Amino acid sequence: YFELVEMVRKLLITAVLVFVFPRTPAQLAAGLVISFGSLIIYYSCRPFLSERLDGLQIFALITQCINLFYGIMLIVQTATVGTTGSSNEDGLITGIVVVLNCGIVAVPFINMATEKLASFYECATTVLPCCKLPDGAGPSDEEEAVGGDAR
User: Fold this and answer.
1) Dihedral angle sign, alpha carbons of residues 109, 114, 118, 121
2) Residue 28's pLDDT is what?
3) pTM of the predicted model, to two decimals?
4) Res. 107: pLDDT tops 70
5) How far is residue 53 from each of residues 32, 46, 68, 128, measured CA to CA in Å?
6) Is 109 exposed, middle or buried (0-12, 13-18, 19+ CB in 10 A)?
């Protein structure tokens, strides 16, 4: 059922938004409202079967909201000041936006690598008992049972 919600979100962002206040800050603001509304829906519903996929979708929507907000700020700053500000500020903010956008692509690979390493470690400790961590070095049985710190 949630495929319909995702298709409506994509339709609004790609097709409908083109005709709403073309080439104005209001167009970006409308996109921000759609993206933020989608973020709230996805955060409250958590529609995916995997927690990691839910987290990736939420991270992608947060990044999309940041991109749109940054676009609005650039337009407003250019309109009011006439310039885009100091190059240090612009470079820092642009760097943050680029890192966030690259993070959307990198997160699945990082998740896959950590799963493979955990699987390899589990396999190695069952086949080679000498590879086990000494007592107290790894997570305790209580921590594994609750999935976190026992503190």
Assistant:
1) positive
2) 92
3) 0.70
4) yes
5) 22, 9, 23, 33
6) exposed
